[in-house]
TrEMBL record, chain B:
Residues 1-177 form the FAD-binding PCMH-type domain. It comes from the Bacteria. Keywords: FAD, Flavoprotein, Oxidoreductase. Transmembrane segments: none annotated. The keyword Glycosyltransferase does not apply. GO terms for molecular function: FAD binding; oxidoreductase activity. Pfam families: CO_deh_flav_C, FAD_binding_5. It comes from Actinoallomurus bryophytorum. InterPro entries: CO_DH_flav_C (IPR005107), CO_DH_flav_C_dom_sf (IPR036683), Diverse_Substr_Oxidored (IPR051312), FAD-bd_PCMH (IPR016166), FAD-bd_PCMH-like_sf (IPR036318), FAD-bd_PCMH_sub1 (IPR016167), FAD-bd_PCMH_sub2 (IPR016169), Mopterin_DH_FAD-bd (IPR002346). Gene3D superfamilies: 3.30.465.10, CO dehydrogenase flavoprotein, C-terminal domain, Uridine Diphospho-n-acetylenolpyruvylglucosamine Reductase, domain 2. The keyword Aminoacyl-tRNA synthetase does not apply. The lineage of its organism: Bacteria, Bacillati, Actinomycetota, Actinomycetes, Streptosporangiales. This is Carbon-monoxide dehydrogenase medium subunit.
Length: 152, 273
């Protein structure tokens, strides 16, 4: 199968039952995308497929053959400088252990591309599918609102 | 490797999907968004030997206004239902209920056809279809048939669909009344409903009050006889057989059905003005 990951075409043989998250981590070698629950609840495996957020533990790699996939690794610029959402997470202390962070950042990216001017309520609704065991969401919500301001 | 081994084929057209299903019979399963099927396959509660991916079949994702109904392609995703201008205008009930399914990631993948074909009594959209007296359009080896939603949901995870058939379109009559409401109670933000209630005009349907989506016929009858909302809503649990799970027992579900039905009828009446 061939998918474009963070702008680069990758072609691999995959077993039919391979989940997208395992393909990204174990075959493509991009390990920012985490596996938290494996039951589609925690959102730590969130990536973008054709620009939309999905839980990559609940998608077969084969289902996205031919698609564009974006992971956290694709957000930083060529020189490694962080993008607006990543920066805001750092500035607003929106992470502690960092486990949920890649999924949070990708969910936020999906939201801000669709709605660059979200209300706090809309940000909270957009994070419904992402669990954090450390920070209690307040700083995460503040980070996303401040990233939105920066992007606008 | 988490799910059991299977052979995956992506169908290019509905005809190709049907012929693969005909060939592989009971060993095959259709996959659309995969958001009900893959979780079951990971637990190996479902172990198909052959998966037919219909996710890319062209022309099965649309929302169209027809003469007397709205036609929705089976592959239309919740996200598209939630943000449809046509639904916002003509069938806000469905847009609203779709926006309350799971979370944004789930709504980007899950399809209306998958939700209906799956036949889970905890799912939201099937109860909306039932409340609207929708019709399910199904293609199979012997052609196309139309199944009224009242005959479609048969039991837990059991529908009138045969294993070699595809659900292709959902037809929803344009509602005559502007009175609608969707009330859903969950225990955690992203969960399925413990109980949900759908009101459209004088139709009332219940989520998770038995092994299929149900019409609250006692409430509908009371409303038709001119009962006041609180009296009609008090009958919401009549004829239901709710089950117990980690969220709630049957008594609590019956209580919720009454409370949510009252709220839904009141909200619908306010909307109708
Ligand atoms: C974390 C999470 C939370 C969720 N929360 C909710 C919720 O709050 N409310 C709710 O209602 N649902 C919820 N769901 C379920 C979700 O809505 C599913 O996406 C949807 O029910 C099934 O659609 P699908 O396209 O993913 O179907 P799939 O999983 O691909 O298929 C489901 C079943 O239907 C069959 N099928 C699919 N399409 C067709 C077709 N066109 N013709 C014939 N058979 C077909 C498949 O063979 C399979 O048996 C949740 C799911 C997850 C993972
Ligand atoms: S690992 Fe995918 S949602 Fe938790
Ligand atoms: S920062 Fe630790 S889980 Fe969110």
């Amino acid at each position: 199968m061939t998918i474009t990951v963070n702008g680069e075409k990758t072609s691999h043989e995959v077993e039919d039952r391979t989940l997208l998250v395992h393909h990204l981590r174990d075959v493509v070698g991009l390990t920012a995308t985490n596996i938290g629950c494996d039951t589609s609840t925690c959102g730590s495996c969130t990536v973008l497929v054709n620009g939309e957020s999905v839980k990559s533990c609940t998608v077969l790699a084969a289902q996205v053959d031919g698609d564009e996939v974006e992971t956290l690794e694709g957000l930083a610029g060529d020189g490694g400088e962080m993008d607006a959402v990543q920066n805001a997470f750092q500035q607003k202390h929106a992470l502690q252990c960092g486990f949920c962070t890649p999924g949070m950042v990708m969910a936020a990216t999906s939201l801000l591309r669709e709605n660059p001017d979200p209300t706090e309520e809309q940000v909270r609704m957009a994070l419904k599918g992402n669990l954090c065991r450390c920070t209690g969401y307040h700083n995460i919500v503040q980070a996303i609102l401040s990233a939105a301001e920066g992007i606008r | 490797m988490i799910p059991a081994r299977f052979v995956y084929r992506r169908a290019g057209t509905a005809e190709e999907a049907l012929s693969l299903l005909a060939e592989h019979g009971d060993d095959a399963k259709v996959i659309a968004g995969g958001h009900s099927l893959l979780p079951l396959m990971k637990l190996r509660l479902s172990v198909p030997e052959f998966l037919v991916d219909i996710g890319r079949v062209p022309d099965l994702s649309y929302i169209r206004g027809e003469d007397d109904h709205i036609a929705i392609g089976a592959l239309t995703r919740y996200h598209d239902l939630e943000h449809s201008d046509l639904l916002a205008e003509e069938l806000p009930l469905l847009a609203n209920a779709s926006g309350k399914v799971g979370d944004p990631q789930v709504r980007h993948r899950g399809t209306i056809g998958g939700s209906i074909a799956h036949g889970d009594s905890a799912s939201d959209v099937p109860a909306v279809v039932l409340a609207l007296d929708g019709v399910l359009v199904v293609s199979g080896p012997s052609g196309v048939r139309e199944i009224p939603s009242g005959e479609f949901f048969r039991g837990p995870f059991e529908t009138a669909l045969e294993p070699d058939e595809l659900l292709t379109e959902i037809r929803l009559p344009r509602p005559a009344s502007p009175a609608w409401s969707f009330q859903k109670l969950t225990s955690r933000a992203i969960d399925w409903a413990i109980v949900a209630v759908v009101v459209q005009g004088e139709s009332v349907a219940l989520v998770n009050m038995g092994s299929t989506p149900l019409r609250a016929t006692a409430v509908e009858r009371a409303l038709a006889d001119g009962a006041a909302i609180p009296d009609a809503a008090a009958q919401a649990a009549e004829g239901t057989s709710p089950f117990a799970d980690r969220n709630a027992g049957p008594d609590y579900r019956r209580h919720l059905a009454r409370v949510l039905t009252r709220r839904a009828l009141e909200e619908a009446a306010t909307r109708a003005g």
